[in-house]
Amino acid sequence: MKKTRAENDLSHGQISRRAALLGGAQLLFIGGLAARMRFLQVDQADQFRLLAEENRINVRLIPPSRGEVFDRNGRRLAQNAPSYRIVIVREDAGDTDAVLDRLSRIIPLAPEDIQRTKEELKRSPSFLPVTIAEDVRWQDISRVSVNAPALPGVTPEVGLSRVYPQGSDFAHVLGYVGPVSDYDLEKIADPEPVLRIPRFQIGKVGVETKLEPLLRGKAGAKRVEVNAAGRVMRELDRREGTAGSDLQLTIDAKLQGYVQARLSEESASAVVMDCDTGDLLACASAPTFDPNLFVRGISVKDYRALTGNKYRPLASKTVQGLYPPGSTFKMITAMAALEAGLIGPDDTVYCPGHLEVSGRRFHCWKRAGHGWVDLQTSLKRSCDVYYYDLAIKVGIEKISAMARRFGLGVKHDVPMSAVAQGLAPTMDWKQQTYNQSWRVGDTVNVSIGQGFMLASPLQLAVMTARLATGRAVEPRLIKSVDGIEQPVRGGESMGMNENNLRKMRRAMNAVVNDRRGTAYGSRIIEDEMRMAGKTGTSQVRNITAAERRAGVIRNEDLPWERRDHALFVNFAPIERPKYAVAVVVEHGGGGSKAAAPIARDITLQALYDGPPPLDAYPAKDRERIEAEQERLRDMQPQASFVGQDQA
Amino acid sequence: MSYLEYAVKSAPTGFRKILYLNWPVAILLASVAGAGFLMLYSVAGGDFNPWAEPQMKRFALGFVLMLGVAMVPIWFWRSLAGVGYLVTVALLVAVELFGTVGMGAQRWIDLGFMRLQPSELMKITLVMFLAAYYDWLPAKRTSHPFWVLLPVIAIMIPTLLVLRQPDLGTSILLLAAGGGLMFLAGVHWAYFTVVVASAVGLVATVFQSRGTDWQLIKDYQFRRIDTFLDPSTDPLGSGYHITQSKIALGSGGWTGRGFMQGTQTRLNFLPEKHTDFIFTTLAEEFGFLGSISLLGLYALIIVFCIWSALTNKDRFSSLLILGIALNFFLFFAVNMSMVMGLAPVVGVPLPMVSYGGSAMLVLLLAFGLMQSAHVHRLR
């Protein structure tokens, strides 16, 4: 097809027009691109710069090391010990299945751990370490290290974990820590970011949880540059956190260990308090458990064994357990009457073995009665009728008020879990709670620490310390925080008549040291160390009229949970009281038989700061005590380092 | 017009041809490629390997090839237009039958020493074929329906073959380049109006087909469109590319973070940082000044090509040059729109900058043709 020159020019002209058009459109588009560049890179630069920084910079928390806890003599009660775990990194391991297989032949691994590891390996990025096993024994760690060439990508890692070197002795006081759970997070209104660290340990029970803010410390942080896959490329800067505060408890670990061993497997509790400062020197609840089990994550079997035990090892009986104080309450009734001026110097009451109050017969524990008794005799022999009579004269309001002044029915400020308030009942209280009016029979019951009256061993110890000193001693559990001594609270005079107090102390002295006193069998011979106290036996059942006629069933013949609680409170030495002790043996039978000997042993142990000489005991007991001391020495843990060398 | 009518006497001969090359275009191309080497060196973390060095070798080879092609008279190349087109279509069919599947698409034939992507070659041979066609076709028949249908078929065959691979980006580029050439050749406005109208209708139909059993495009293509329309719906999924590349671009600011200082690139937040998204690295490290300069270089190449075409009295030559320029324009326009969030992510590389052998070789080959047309133009 031959074209003419004209034709060519024509078409060329057309091309030129269209080319100019299309070229113009192209340049226009390029202009549009330039405008877009300007918009993104100049107008919105700041915003995008920020986004880029957010992309690349990651803030990682550095967990603070938890404060340690010591006893009053500096013995370590809670510490952070290295705990070993084994991790695997996929990109270093190559064939992870083969490596895990080899590893399981070198150290014992649970099949479910292997399964979980395999699943996690599939999910997580190849450079992230996946934990195969935690709390690995040192021997296994060495085995892994020795076999390192055959186990590519497998490395032992060390972290810090809470360990309680005193084991079960401090289970109820200190409590324990455990990994943060979703449940914990829900309870906290605005959880600190550090709590989101997987398996971060926080206090769950006891001092560990009550003083969590002090113990936890402040998390540090490091800013790291990460790539798109989340791998850390380098650390940009770091701010170290502050470790948690170290605490010193007022507890004496040696005494606590003794008390715990002395209570042994009995369902019992004991509190030893310094009469001057209110320092709790021992606060033991038995049976107990090993808090280290909870730190690692307790097995279902072990947990069932604890919850299924009828002696309730998990309960912190010293502060949580509430018992009718029984005859140990008689001092309060008597003090209420003395302070009200209702007992003359020579006043006596006749005890025929019972008292008729508005048509109801209230019995004395001694059926035959005590005959004519005065204040000292009534306390010494624990006559009930004397106190029925006093209580009716004094009235419940004064008794209840006196109980509160002595720290009963008052929640003491002690950083332990489930501190109970107890109950010192009043007329209003009964009206509000039961919508019933107070009856004089209720007063009669309260007068001997039965009925509505409830107190914890801690409260009984406080009561005893206040009786011994006449000052409003407050219990203290934390001696110092980071070496700074904590103030002693309370301790001011209660404003009671010193004569009345002296009468009570003399009566309590008679309970222990008079030949006819209920606790004479548990006296201390050594003059300097003599103690004064009061037995208590509190009923947990009603004795029917029919049973009374047929003869009250002896405790030994009753099933355990229906037997009486045995109680004993005491202070020593009598002249210059140093320690107040309260012991409660649940369903232990009589206070003089079950609780008083324990209290005496504990008191002597505290007074002598170690095993007392045998001549502090009455001569006929010495042989038995010596054997007992021998046995307990073997039972007390020698501060073994629990947590690592269990193999 | 037969080759005899070329003013042979006025055309330079022998090595003197070198002096008559369109040197501005050649130098601009080398500058753009140089920027590319710099960026490839940077994304490799300051290393010539694995990208910058092979790219430089390929560029050297391609540049020599371009000069070689430029030395051969344009009328020789024109005579190959028809054969070239047929061979390339045959290669596309071959890819369909024996091609290697890479990244979910059949795109190349492994020749042993290099991977041949016929779809890249197609961009050139299609333009050559259409230019030759309209050179041959008398001007007054240009808008005749029959003579319009022929080039439409010639465009649709490779477009559909490429779409089957599937490579949406290249097929759009082919369609646009072919259509553009027909427009340049003077096909009547009415046709384009009708095509644009029906294209709108087609898009509507495609969207209608979503989720039905006659769905016309693949789910991932729908998703790309979705995330293009609203990248924030899926910032870690398919919207990730767009979001991250906008962050990289924007964080560059006026002057950028400095050479090799781009955090988005170094920390791998950018996907395909050495290929399709390499512009974001440049924008992040050299800022607005850097990216506008690159755009300026591209614009200058287009301007010089159009000027060369307008001053070329040969119909085939000017259509060919305009077609090549249009192709080049479509390349960088689509790529930049994509990384700046103006177009969906379709997988078009940045010409002369992105790492990739066959794309660069084919482009330099095309510019060889352009240079040949320039050297051997009527004077």
Automatic annotation (TrEMBL), chain A:
Q: Which domain of life is it from?
A: Bacteria
Swiss-Prot/TrEMBL GO biological process terms: cell wall organization; peptidoglycan biosynthetic process; proteolysis; regulation of cell shape
Q: What is the protein's membrane topology class? A: Single-pass membrane protein
Q: What is its main location?
A: membrane
GO molecular function per UniProt: penicillin binding; peptidoglycan L,D-transpeptidase activity; serine-type D-Ala-D-Ala carboxypeptidase activity; transferase activity
Q: Which SUPFAM superfamilies match?
A: beta-lactamase/transpeptidase-like, Penicillin binding protein dimerisation domain
* Entry-linked Pfam families: PBP_dimer (PF03717), Transpeptidase (PF00905)
Q: Where is the composition biased (Polar residues)?
A: 637-647
Residues in a coiled coil are: none
| The Penicillin-binding protein dimerisation domain, residue ranges | 62-236
Q: What are the UniProt keywords, alphabetically?
A: Carboxypeptidase, Cell inner membrane, Cell membrane, Cell shape, Cell wall biogenesis/degradation, Hydrolase, Membrane, Peptidoglycan synthesis, Protease, Transferase, Transmembrane, Transmembrane helix
Question: Region entry Disordered: which residue ranges?
Answer: 628-647
Q: Where does it localize?
A: Cell membrane; Membrane
Q: Which residues form the Penicillin-binding protein transpeptidase domain?
A: 269-602
CC per GO annotation? plasma membrane
Q: What is this protein called?
A: Peptidoglycan glycosyltransferase
UniProtKB/TrEMBL annotation, chain B:
Segments passing through the bilayer: 20-44, 56-77, 83-109, 145-163, 172-192, 286-307, 319-346, 352-370
GO molecular function annotation: lipid-linked peptidoglycan transporter activity; peptidoglycan glycosyltransferase activity
EC assignment: 2.4.99.28
Alphabetical UniProt keywords: Cell inner membrane, Cell membrane, Cell shape, Cell wall biogenesis/degradation, Glycosyltransferase, Membrane, Peptidoglycan synthesis, Transferase, Transmembrane, Transmembrane helix
Q: Which InterPro entries match?
A: Cell_cycle_FtsW-rel_CS, FtsW/RodA, RodA/MrdB
Pathway per its UniProt entry is:
Cell wall biogenesis; peptidoglycan biosynthesis
Class of the enzyme per the UniProt entry, highest EC level: transferase
Q: Which GO terms describe its cellular component?
A: cell division site; plasma membrane
One biological-process term from Gene Ontology? Answer: peptidoglycan biosynthetic process
Name the predominant localization. membrane
What Pfam families does the record point to? FTSW_RODA_SPOVE
Instruction: List the subcellular locations.
Output: Cell inner membrane; Membrane
Catalytic activity line of the entry: [GlcNAc-(1->4)-Mur2Ac(oyl-L-Ala-gamma-D-Glu-L-Lys-D-Ala-D-Ala)](n)-di-trans,octa-cis-undecaprenyl diphosphate + beta-D-GlcNAc-(1->4)-Mur2Ac(oyl-L-Ala-gamma-D-Glu-L-Lys-D-Ala-D-Ala)-di-trans,octa-cis-undecaprenyl diphosphate = [GlcNAc-(1->4)-Mur2Ac(oyl-L-Ala-gamma-D-Glu-L-Lys-D-Ala-D-Ala)](n+1)-di-trans,octa-cis-undecaprenyl diphosphate + di-trans,octa-cis-undecaprenyl diphosphate + H(+)
- Membrane topology according to the record: Multi-pass membrane protein
Q: What does this protein do?
A: Peptidoglycan polymerase that is essential for cell wall elongation.
**PANTHER family reported in the protein's UniProt record:** CELL CYCLE PROTEIN, PEPTIDOGLYCAN GLYCOSYLTRANSFERASE MRDB
Q: Which NCBIfam families match?
A: rodA_shape
* Family the UniProt entry places it in: Belongs to the SEDS family. MrdB/RodA subfamily.
- Protein name (database record): Peptidoglycan glycosyltransferase MrdB
